[in-house]
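for the writeup, i need someone to sanity check this before i put it in the appendix. the sequnce is what the collaborator sent (i think, or maybe the updated version? ugh). structure was predicted straight from it, no edits. if anything looks off just tell me and ill rerun, i have time this weekend
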Amino acid sequence: MAYTVILVDDEKLILNTFSKMIDWEEYGFKLAGSFQNAKKAIEWLDEHDADAVITDISMPGMDGLEFAEWLRKNRQGCCVALMSGYSDFDYAQKAIRYHVEDYLLKPVSIQSLTELLLKLSERIDEKRRDELTEENTDLTGQEQSIIDYLTGAEHDEQLLLKKLPGECDIPLMERPAAIIRIEIEQLQKYLREVWSYGRNRLITAVQNIVRTCSCFAIPYSRTFDSMQWLVLSNGRSINGFSEELAQLRGEIIVKCFENIELGVSVIIEAVEPDLKLMKDRMRMLSTDFQTAIIMKLVEQGNAEEIRHEVGRFYKMFADDEAAIRFYCKSIMEQLLNSYEELRLDSPQKKEDRPDLEQLLHIQNPDMLCALALDTAVRAARGYSEIDRASAVKMAKRYISEHLEEGVSLKNTAEFVHFSPSHFCRMFKTETGENFSDYVNKTRIEKAKLLLRTTDMKINDIYEKIGYKSRNYFYKMFKLYSGVTAQDYRNLNNKGIFGD
């Protein structure tokens, strides 16, 4: 898809030269207009959009810098490049202030202009992807209330009964509803060859794209290569809703490809004439809820109950292969994410870890369910083998031995082969105190020992126990000891402290 660019320069010869001598399409651009002053360019921009503007600085009326300032205030997504016959530091400073992408000195060669187009193309790509991946996926109160109602959780009745903004007067409960699944095609290849922002930001981009489509859609569950959405009709007719869903399907496929060159397929999993009839179906399909049960059983090391829960779900949806695949993939994603956190990534456990490429190619629901069950059971057994008390004991010894060089949650967790988040929770469970409190208390006890048994200066002691700030050390010592470090030494010298 070509980007739109306009040229602004009071010299007609320059406009004609660049218009005719540059193959704009070759560099991914469409030259939408050439203007001899900023006023005419602004008039055009009031009616049209431009991805980029290349403008001269020295022009009658509004000059290029004033025009750049107008663009910054009124067209923030537009990339701007300036041309000038003068190498002026003040110009360059103002250009930076107005977020100008580049500054070219006249005479501008064809080569320097084509290099600028390549640079602008990359910058526009970055801006578009930044906009698409901006984290703005929180549900509104009404959307959350709808999902809570359908999945059996508590919900706000008043939010549920309100009309959607800008929609027709048909009550929400009387609208046809559907569950659709969006599957990303060749995810691993796309992440390797096209998308450099990571899978989570890709999912966010797809969600933001879907939110620009014509139907009212709410995301409610996802796995690593697909996501489920609830879609509500704009009317009452189930036949009319079928047409809406067909249009939505086409919109999603086209927009994903046009915006981020991503291939997706859209599957309509269930359609019901109203929200009430959708409730039972969706509650059973609430993958997040079902997956949470499995993960809790994994942490408990309860392999037998895992077998029971997976088997129960499998029997419930024996005739619905799509539901089984989605459920199993959701479990597998949680387990894969938890391998490090549950301390299952040691060399002897790596052979149990499923391969993501293999998982993405499994379509048979029986095989997928067997793989999910087997991996969950292995994870549960591995979790039950963890000696938490021993790990905490090792961590305490590590802290004591490494105070001077600096102890952090991250390096302590790595020493005992846990993720920081899981180790932090485990440490609190085993010791009854936070990791940071324990480290500070250990440091202060070491400081008190040095104050009692050596003549070290206090300024040397705080570095010896791993504090980088003297003032912070003073604050912590007073907090944990009730007196200042100097008072503690003085009182000890008088025989007040005998510890």
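DSSP finds 24 helices and nine strands in the chain. The chain has a mean pLDDT of 78.
thx in advance!!
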